[in-house]
Amino acid sequence: MGEHQQADALNQLTRWLCGSFDNRQQAFDNPPLYAHIRVRYRPIAQLEPRSLLIEQAYAITPKEPYRVRVVRPTLTADGVITVLNFSMSEPERFFGAIDDPEQRRQITPGDLTLLEGCSTIIEAHQDHFSGQVEPGCRCRVSRKGRASYVVSTFRLDQHRMETMDRGHDPISHAQIWGSLPGPFIFERVEDCSDELLPLWGGLMQRTRP
Fold first, then answer.
1. What is the distance between the alpha carbons of residues 13 and 129, in angstroms, rounded to a whole number?
2. Residue-range definition of the domain harbouring residue 40
3. For the stretch 178-187, what's the b/e string if a residue is b when 16 or more beta carbons lie within 10 angstroms of its beta carbon?
4. Average pLDDT, the chain
5. How many independent structural domains does the chain possess?
6. What is the DSSP string of 12-65?
7. What pairing do the DSSP bridges indicate for beta strands 184-191 and 120-124?
8. Is the Cβ–Cβ distance between 37 and 152 less than 8 Å?
9. Strand partners, 71
10. What is the C-alpha to C-alpha distance for residues 69 and 196, in angstroms, rounded to an integer?
């Protein structure tokens, strides 16, 4: 993939992420296996290009997200599309920021900590993107007092997003938490990609022959 194609793919990935996703149908069809979850992405204009706030919440408690983070699609020095993941030092300060531009404007680089080992390596296909957490078993998470590392996969197209996170024991490598039946399947219910157009010096408006 050439330099221009890489940049176009990076922008397309960012546009397709920017919006809201919902696994309502999957949760209704399989209530014992899948909770009803909403995942939302909105741009953060004052941070580095393509920085997006992500909020994940159960549909029954939309004002109480269980995850508030920042992600940033970027190109590595050797041209690999990678999504960086950042935790927030006080995520509760930004509950509701997904719907409040003024609150989003208060997010600063000092609020963010890069999650080492937790970046997603992305591969661009003709009509979708796929990805998985970077190799090395370094994306560490503690669940219920037990150490684990995360193995995650990702698929995104214009209409849906599929994700699967699984936690493994760092010694035995056995799975100890996460989805057993398969990925969460989120349908796009809102497209916010137009919000990207005026940002970062018009970076997202650029088209290449």
1. 7
2. 3-205
3. eeeeebbbbe
4. 94
5. 1
6. HHHHHHSEEEE-HHHHHH-TTT---EEEEEEE-TTSSTT-EEEEEEETT-TTS-
7. unpaired
8. no
9. 52, 85
10. 18
